[in-house]
Amino acid sequence: MRLPPRGTHLGQANRPETGYVDADPQRHPTLSLQTGRTIRYGMVRPSTTGAMMVPEWKRRGPMTKPVISVLGVDLGKNSCSVAGLDAAGAVIMRRRMTREGLIKFVSKLPQCVVAMEACCGAHFLARTFQSHGHSVRLMSPEYVQPYVKAQKTDDRDAEAIAEAATRPTMRLVTPKSEAQLDLQILHRARARLVAERTRLTNQLRAVLLERGIILPQRRGPLIRRLDDLMGGDLPISARMLRLLRDLRDEWAELD
């Protein structure tokens, strides 16, 4: 039995080979000069000259390592998310590390811009990064929020911080020195003690008001009135009188 010629089955006679097509020098000058062949549908016609196709990245030469221009850091209690941007603003690095690892990582980087939100611990890291020659930019968190894309995550926050730092009109926070931080802590400690004294005074007024005794608002008359009440007979139980004396002693320590 004589078999039909190849390619004539089911009416496909004279069908061209669509899997392999030679390169046209006018349409594909690069491939025709490099290998004399082209790719169609994922298949390559074997070269008749024995030349091999060279990838584009090899023809360009050795690839250079991308350089971080802006480093955005999202600070956390135990770990930090880091995003690096190149000079064109493209994200070239995302990583998560501890605070100690962050200091070691930044110390090995070439000079770049390190961006962070002005929060707890940011001023210490800012002075540390500046000692390594980096330019530090601290920003208020409310100014970084508009640059967060899609759902909020630590990695996206770090990218948003890096992008916000590249804006020329961004308002920056000056890193505080150790003396400035000490003075700030003193003011905050004093504010806490004043708030505790105010809460204690309000509690004393409320306790005595429940017994029909009204204390004045001003500090001096309040102390004198309270001392007079402690020395006289109060229409309260001995347990409540002992509690009032403890509150009075605590108030005196805060004052």
UniProtKB/TrEMBL annotation:
Q: Where is the Transposase IS110-like N-terminal domain?
A: 71-209
Residue ranges for the region (Disordered) are 1-29
User: What Pfam families does the annotation carry?
Assistant: DEDD_Tnp_IS110 (PF01548)
Coiled coil spans:
none
List GO molecular-function terms, semicolon-separated: DNA binding; transposase activity
- Check the record and name the InterPro entries matching this protein: Transp_IS110-like_N, Transpos_IS110
Question: What biological-process terms (Gene Ontology) are attached?
Answer: DNA transposition
This protein's source sits in the domain of life called Bacteria
Task: Output this protein's name.
Answer: IS110 family transposase
Which species does the entry assign this protein to? Flagellimonas pelagia
Which lineage ranks, top first, belong to the organism behind this chain?
A: Bacteria, Pseudomonadati, Bacteroidota, Flavobacteriia, Flavobacteriales
